[in-house]
Amino acid sequence: MIKFSEMPYQRPDVEGMKETLKNAAEKAAQAKTYQEVRDAYFEVQEKSIQASTLYSIAHVRNTMDTTDEYYDGELKWLREQLAMLTPLEVAWQKALTTSPFRKDFEAEFGKQLFRMLDADLLTEDERIIPEMIREGELCQEYSKTAAQAKTDFRGEECNFYGLLKHMESTDRQERKEAFEAWAKLYEKISPELDRQYTELVELRDAKAKKMGFKTYTEMAYISRNRFDYTREDAARFREQIRTVVTPAVAAIRERQKKHLGIDKIRFYDEQLKFPEGNALPIGTTEELVDKAQKMYREMSKETGEFFDFMKEYQLFDLETRPGKHLGGYMTRFASYKAPFIFSNFNGTAADVDVLTHEAGHAFQGYLAMRSIPISALTGSTSEINEIHSMSMEHFAYPWMNLFFGDRADEYRTAHLLEALCSIPYLVSVDEFQHEVYEKPGMTPMERRKVWREIEKKYMPWRDYDGNEFLEEGGFWMQKQHIFLYPFYYIEYALSQICAFQYYGRMKEDPKAAWEDYLRLCRAGGTKGYFELLETGNLLNPFKDGTVEKATAHVIEELKQKY
């Protein structure tokens, strides 16, 4: 194993991949034994792991500096070349899924792999290669537009993340000015974002129509492997949130107003939980990583081993800087069995949130890559993956004194507040995307109107203090998932409901809660969503009453503390 900075990048052997896929399809079609099909599968997997690792290295280095022309060009080349493999991949998948030895494969590795392969055959085809390539180009273009946006704020050059720090100031005037600068920056680039998103929606709709779907929504549910629930189930879940969580958050906003001593909660007040200021992490980035290492060593043998590995091989890029891609994520270098954590530290409690949230993803990946032989099953669908990350944020609570000193209790309260208060926004993003792809011909202003109506439905307290751009519905633009990962967002709400279940169990029997969580992590994506919920001893969020059961103890705790 080597450090991330030393990992070599070279273009994948595309011709070799073509040959491997072609030979594997022929072997599967002509195989006389299960072993022959199995061997062909693992030959393809080895080539895929090599290619995906090189792609991940290029992607990470591009997001570390979106102005780097070399990796910008490499990603363009990779997207084009890998998209051209689609016909051979489809032929291989067809040979595998129609093999008389499919049942043998399912008997050894489970049925989930073939559910995923069947879904791929419905959503991937050489007919949509041009759209796939152009979609990738637009996503990269969006990332550069958002990452390179900056403004001057009180003599400091700030990107979006830099401004968020000022929006937590105890000085309300500073918060308001930072908010106005933040909104103005989005308004400035909104023509570009509108253009990019309009074309993305058109491309995705065109892909769906070519593949025989009525709408992109139908295609997206299959491509995201949503085998266990429908858009109607999602709508009923959102309604549970509207009736249970929205009133609870509205009551919290009223209490927050009193805590802060202000007449009304504006958007720029929402992140400030205490009049003396939010708890801030103590220490440099290096010191925070050291504290995280101590925490994970004490949490469990498995987490200690994992974080020692991450630190030894420098599998992080944590600090914000000009030109860096927004947000945070975890990815994997499968050839090295190594996770990688990317974020934008900005001096707020969110820095610690990243070290727990993304570390939850990374921990699960670290475990699964060492125990599950089928690479495609080492991770699950997003509905499960986000349970790994969001639950880890709560499991880390006992160690918050390391990061916040005597303000650890305030951090825990603020974190729990934000975990609950964010849920109505999470389902708003989901409903917005359903509306957009149901009517792909909407104009940018029509989309803004739809967003504002949805906001009022789930977040009636939201007040933009007269900012015209946001009052018209421009806020949706700040969510990169809408551009880059269509329909990926309700998973956060579903997973938070599950994370609250683990948190409730933590308070009663921390050992049992951790064992349930560890069992879920080790299972990876070897089963379907509902089966994995059972594996982790979790109630199904879609069932009536689950949202109320899972949030009741959180709402009550916050009434006592805030």
What does this structure look like?
- The protein has helices at residues 14-30, 34-64, 69-83, 86-97, 102-109, 112-123, 129-147, 160-166, 172-210, 216-223, 231-260, 285-299, 301-312, 350-369, 382-395, 400-404, 408-421, 423-438, 444-458, 468-471, 480-484, 490-508, 510-523, 529-535, 546-561; strands at residues 151-153, 156-158, 316-319, 329-333, 338-345.
- By secondary structure, the protein is mostly helical.
- The strands form two sheets. The chain has a three-stranded mixed sheet with strand order 3-5-4, with helices on both faces.
- A hairpin with a 2-residue loop joins strand 1 (151-153) and strand 2.
- Helix 12 runs antiparallel to helix 13 (301-312).
- It is globular and about 75 Å long.
- The protein starts with 13 loop residues before the first helix and ends with a helix.
- The relative contact order is 0.11.
- It comes from Aristaeella lactis.
- This is Oligoendopeptidase, M3 family.
